[in-house]
Write a structure and sequence with these properties.
This protein has one domain: Rossmann fold. The chain contains seven helices and ten strands. It has a ten-stranded mixed sheet, with helices on both faces. It is about 25% helix and about 20% strand. The radius of gyration is 18 Å and the shape is globular. It is an alpha/beta fold and about 325 residues long. Helix 6 runs antiparallel to helix 7.
Length: about 325
């Protein structure tokens, strides 16, 4: 693990501790009130039509978008399936592969940046997904560390999603005709997990068909999951020193839709997400098959989720998909 990545994780840990306090009490402070929780209006089944996910791996391209939402600078890193031979490092501004690909919006943790998660996110892109990861103005590395700004981040993600999807119709753009706007998910780690939960609760974005929450909690955004059913995959280390496992499990338990929780008995707050090891391989393979099922509608992928999740006795899997 690089020194930069290690420092990003440490910053995430320190700042997240300020967000969740002692973690034994997940209630927000008086200055940070969770929104009222209306009765969710969920439908019983996912909305994505049946289909088949790509069976081959893709080369990966990477590029940057410079976005700004009402004075909030939101540079976005895009990883996407690219033309050429699979493998190797992502290529800057490479030509996109042929096809139409689902979109996954990824939110980084406090004190982090999208590049910290490149190993995981490039695997998603190689599997046939366009991954868009904003760098948030206050909670990223180099920001002012305003923890409360996490509450503004679901709106940032929705804005960035709109701008990314617009590339599908933009003349001359390398992603023109390559984005499937009807197949979209959100994912995030730590404070990015809070952001992701918010996109399905207080700031529900109805374009989202699925969610992946790494080491997240519902503090500040509530658990009033609303709208059409959107399957959720939670991933949480049982030895998490920042967001207690019980806090993540409590949010997971409130999800009214198809859901699963990948629990890592020896997992901490998420160092395994930042490097290439056995745990990351289990997490990445499980999340890839989950995304293949929820965004491509691939029934075969659904059948492989449990197998990948329980490989090597690295994790346990609570499966309600």
């Amino acid at each position: 693990m690089s020194r930069r990545t290690t420092l990003a994780l440490m910053a995430s840990t320190v700042l997240m501790a300020g967000l969740v306090g002692c973690s034994t009490d997940t209630r927000p402070s008086e200055s940070w009130q969770a929104p009222a929780e209306p009765k969710p209006a969920a439908t019983p089944t996912p909305q994505v039509p049946s289909g088949t996910a790509p069976q081959r791996a893709f080369a990966v391209g990477v590029r940057q978008l410079k976005l700004n939402r009402d004075g909030r600078a939101l540079p976005v890193t895009l990883w996407y399936p690219a033309a050429g031979e699979a493998g190797g490092t992502p290529k800057r501004t490479a030509s996109a592969a042929s096809g139409r690909f689902p979109v996954v919006m990824f939110s980084h943790g406090l004190g982090g940046r999208p590049d910290d998660y490149a190993t995981l996110l490039t695997r998603w892109a190689a599997a046939g997904f366009v991954v868009a990861a904003p760098t948030f103005p206050h909670t990223s590395k180099g920001g002012d560390g305003n923890v409360l700004d996490v509450l503004n981040q679901p709106a940032d993600v929705s804005y960035a999603l709109t701008q990314v999807l617009a590339l599908d119709g933009k003349a001359g753009d390398s992603l023109r005709g390559r984005l499937d706007a009807d197949r979209v998910a959100a994912a995030g780690h730590s404070a990015g997990g809070v952001t992701t939960i918010g996109l399905f609760t207080a700031s529900r974005d109805e374009r989202l068909d699925a969610g992946v929450v790494f080491a997240g909690t519902a503090i500040g955004v509530g658990t009033a999951f609303a709208g059409a059913a959107a399957p959720q995959l939670f991933v949480h280390g049982e030895l998490d020193e920042v967001v207690e496992y019980a806090a993540g499990k409590a949010a997971y338990d409130k999800v009214p839709w198809p859901k699963a929780m990948l629990s890592l008995p020896k997992g901490d707050h998420g160092r395994a997400l930042l490097g290439d090891g056995a745990t990351l391989r289990v997490v990445s393979d499980t999340s890839v098959e989950f995304l293949r099922w929820t965004l491509y509608g691939d029934a075969g992928a659904k059948g492989r989720i449990h197998t990948d999740a329980t490989r090597g006795d690295i994790a346990t899997f609570d499966d309600h998909l």
